[in-house]
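Notes on consecutive records. When two proteins share a document, each keeps its own sequence and its own token line. Never mix them. Below: protein one.
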Amino acid sequence: MARQVAVVGIGADGWDGLGGAARAAVSGATVVLGAPRQLALLPGLDVERVELPSPLLPALGDVVARHRDRGLCVLASGDPMFYGIGVTLARLLGAESLVVHTHPSSVSLAAARLGWALQEATVVSLVARPASRLVPELAAGRRLLVLSEGAHTPVAVAQVLRDNGFGESRLTVLAQLGGPDEATTIGYAHDWDGVADPLNVVAVECRGGAGRSRVPGLPDDAFETDGQLTKQEMRALTVSALAPRPGELLWDVGGGTGSIGIEWMRAHPDCRAIAFERDGERAARIARNAATLGVPGLVVRGAAPAGFADTGERPAAVFVGGGVTAPGMLEQCWSALRPGGRMVVNAVTIESEAAVIAWNAEHPGTLRKLQVYRGGGLGGFTAWRPQLPVTQWTGDKDTGDKDTGDKDTGEKESAR
């Protein structure tokens, strides 16, 4: 049986901040693997020091395999299991292969300095992520603890706050937490322009703005569009039918403006989406909208169904808003959907409606005819102006019948 790997969390206080068991794990190892900054915190121990590879993930498995049987200790920054290398190693080797020695995380230390209830603050990591990732988290009175990419992260955070109406927010940058050079800088987003120590956490007290709801149905003017946009009310109904759950992957086929995929991802930070769009200008517009509305991780690929290849994972949900009449499109979307997944198809034209009705004959699901009216001026009065009606099909890819809610008729749906 392979030897267990010791994973030791170490802070800016270095060797002096380690407990007895953590010190024994480091000094008892033959090889210590870590970032240069972490290795420099160790005293003159009789161990071989090996720097973590860069990029990390492609090479980490080989490095660990090379040294594991010699007695390996891996250093982590702070708590190894909080956005740390301990999580990666547990996935790679299995939890039973590790002995983890924890250390206070940077956010725990930050909450202690600020007097914040840690369970009431929202932690957002901007390590290898754009600062726009903050946007969905912004709301008046909210407290955020931001894990920084480096020295320029506080400036990027302040810019996002200003761009979204939160310029009055108070920022506290806590650097070198727990170490002899710990320092705190306090200011406001509207005039923040300083570069911080690279090892920092940004605490944000949101002020001055209202933010946007995570509930689907953003205003239409929140999106840059050329007109290919699922309108607000229909979008809310469509995302509700798709029923996003944390961690699930959506395919948005015929992305247009990207609104369905964006609203899906905003529903929960762990929701993921791929938008398939054949038009290059629209694909670029989808990416801009995703960044502006705080879900820069939305993936944009080319035309469906050719773009389905090599996606790496079957989707939990598929929305078809474009290409409904393309031969084989619905069949290929349904085939790609994982068991237990949901598919929603919206049809606006007579031809696409006919395709949906024919599809329902082969794959019985739930059909709905939806139309929205908006009040608008007519002379000195107000009149109802109809939006285009939408025929919507929804189905679950499972083996059982599903109650449609039509309990008075006893009707059931089953999509197989």
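Protein two starts on the next line and is unrelated to protein one.
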Amino acid sequence: MSRKSLNKTITAVLLSGSLFFMGTGAVSAEEVVDLTLDNSVQMALENNRTIKQSYYDTDAARWALKEAKGQKGLTISWQGSAASLNGSYYNQLNRDESYGNVLEAAIPLYTGGQLENNIKANEIGVDISDLNLENTKQQIKFATTEGYYNILQARNLVGVNEETVSQLQEHLNVVSARYAAGTVAKSDVLRSQTELADAQQNLVNAENNYDLSMSSLNNIIGLPIQTKLNIKDELRYTKYDLNFDECVDTAMANRPDGVAAIKAVEQAQAMVDAAKAGNLPQVEAYTSYTIDGNDAFKDDAAEQAQVGIRANWNIFDNNVTKAQVRQAEAALYKAQEQAQYVREGIQLEVHQAYLSLLAAEKNIKTTSVAVNQATEDYQIAQVRYSAGVGTNIDVMDASVALTTARTNYVQALYDYNVSKAQLDKAMGMPVDLDVQAVAAKTY
């Protein structure tokens, strides 16, 4: 995503955050906003502050590259001095003040590869910053997707608890009628009232979790946290056809943090080569013009001009260069270990997400059957109780089992969809950057 597109946000917080703009106009934070998963992700990519911080990291990396390249080009410097003179030598010249000016231009001819390797390291640094930005975007995309599914799950659980309250209220009406007719004990009424009160409390908690899930997603995508969201999607099961080996291969090729770790090794090697340049001479071409006079910018005492080449070779530096090389080599070995660590971590992450996906897929099937069975069991318990051949406890137990089965089914659907999103993240499914093209770059 370009910096220009970053500034074209889908939403912009206005009037101290009380209003935001979304396509058709200003909408207050208390109004309902329709959202899909795609535009939720897009809003997060446009508005999320973590991503914006990563953009500044890429800016810094590019300026660091400009700095490194600039060190290889022409430099022009001026040095001025003003001094009070004293002594027999200057007394003979009748001089008591001196003003000197030296104007010099220089360009490096040979640095032993130091500047070249510094440039290479910073070019790789730009690639790493781009990869880190892509990794951040992928993380935010997953966080948005997870937050989106959290809302769907919370909304479904509100529905489950509403059904439970409705069922228990209807059952309490039956129990109360039978108690009034003298066919059941008051304990049945009390137990039914207690179960209904518990169910109502669970419904309040579920509604609160629903509100919290909307606030969390609002925070991720850059909307006022009190914005009410209307999500028309439903948690559903869609078969994911990739096998494990395909997932791992995709992850190894596409994960931006994995490629960034490999690039970090290349960068560290460039820094080792740059440090070794301290053992070689430095050669530059230069030209200078010097004047010295009794007044500022006067040449009445001396004037000289030079054009030439000069070399500097630090033959003995008390092992300073050697120590710098060893430090750079240690950083290289660390980068190599880090790259392997990241590679192994990617494989583990793919494995965990893939297994979680399979487990959730199995749970969807089993919990779906359990819902049907628990529904039938609850209906039977109600009929038996109404007929006077079943107990109130049988109905309460069946109600709890039905609520649990429905909750487990919602949880399984949620786990499956989140695991699928986690697997996409683990495989490094691209957002904006062609990671493989960056990986193929050589310097």
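For the record: DSSP finds eleven helices and nine strands in the chain.
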